[in-house]
Amino acid sequence: MKMFIWIITIIWGLQDALGESILTSKVFVIPIGPELFGVTEDSSQGTDFSYQASLLNSPDLPPWIHYTYSGKHHQGFLYGVAPKNQGNFTLQIVGLSKKTYNTNYKVLDMNVQQNENSTKYEVYLKIDNLRIDDAFNKTTVETLLDLFRKELWLEAKDVCITYLASAVEEGARLPLDPNEPEGVVLKLGSSAPFSEVLMKLEEEVKPLKKKFPCPKDYKRTSKEVLFRKAHFYLDWCSFKLISENQSQHQESARRGSSMNVIGRQTPEHAEWRWARPKKSDIPTRSYFKEILTTVFIPTLLLFILALLLSTTFCLHHEKADKRESTPMEGVGNNGVQMVQYAASERGTLRSLSAQPSSPSDSLLRSPRTSTERGNPYVRPNPPPYTGPTSLGTLRVDF
Description:
The structure is a single chain. The chain is an alpha+beta fold. Among the domains are: 17-113, Immunoglobulins (Immunoglobulin-like, Sandwich), CATH 2.60.40; 121-242. It contains eight helices and 13 strands. β6 (89-97) and β7 form a beta hairpin. Residues 4-15, 248-258, 266-270, 341-345 and 360-364 have low confidence and may be disordered.
C-alpha cells in the first residue's frame, strides 16, 4: 500500500514538473477542479468552489485564453488556441472554497509545442444544439472529427479543431428558453486541400446566403442526414470553407501581428505606439473636384432648369396671343359674310344697356334674351328706322 502511494506521489510530481503541453494552432482544454489543488472531496461538492486564472504576476489572461465555468460538469475550463511562435509561459490559478473560505493556489506551467502540420484549410461551422461546455467533451469532439475523416474529408487525417467560441460571443442572441443551447462556433483545420464533397456542399448552401434570417431547420443538403444521425444540428447559412489566403486577419495599427505572443521582447519605441505614416504615403485630396461637385454642378442644373421654364412660359404666351387675334368668320342665312372678333370683353352700348340692373331683373327676362346675351357671336338688334319726313322727331335708341 505504501508502495502504491509512493508511485502516485511520484507521478503527480512528474506531472507538476512537466506541466501542460499544448500545440499551436490547435484548441486546448484544461479542466480546473478541486483535484487540481490536491483537494479530495465528493463530486457533489464541486459547486462550492470558485476559480480565478491569470498569467503569473499579471492581473488577467492573454486575449487568446478564455475561462468559463460549467454548471453541468461542476468545473472550470481554460480553453484557447496558442498563436504561432508562442513560447512557454506560466499560469496561476486561485481556488476559493465557499464553505470554509480556504484559498488554494496553483502554478501551472504551459509547455507550447509548434504544430508541424499547418492548418492551411479550415471549415467554419455553427452547431445550434451544443453549448460551449459540450465541446469540452472528448466523445462529442471525436464524433464530429470522425464524421469529417470518414465521410466528408477523407484526405484530412490530421483534422483538428482550430477555433472554438460560443455563438453569443460571435454576435448571436441568447435563446428565449434558458434550457435551449446557445450554439457553438468552431473551425476544423487540416493541411489537406478541400475534398470535392466539401466543395459541392458549399455550392448547395450558397442560395441560403440570400435569406435572412436563416431557416433554422433547413434539411435540404445532401449531407444533412449524416449530421442528424450524429446529433449535430448545423446552421447551414454559416457553413463556409476558408483557405489560407482568406484566413489572414488584419491587425490594428497600434500593435503588430505578434503582440499576442506572451513573453516576446519588442523594441521599446515600437511597443503600443502609433506608427506615423510618411507624408508621401498620405493620399492627396483634390479640392477642385469637391468645388465642382458642390458648387458648379448644382448651379448649372439650376440655370438649365430656369432656362427651360422661361422658354415654356414664352411659348405659351405667344400661343395665347395668336388665339385671341384670330378672326371668326361665318356666313349668315342671307348670304352676307359676317366677321367678328372673339373678344368677350367687347360689346355695343345697346348690349351693355340690356344688362339687368339687379339680380331680380335677370330672373324675369325671357329665355331668348338670356340666350342672346350668353352668345358673343350674335349681333344686337338694329336701331329703329325713321323716315326723312320726321326730322324733328328723330330719336336714336342706344
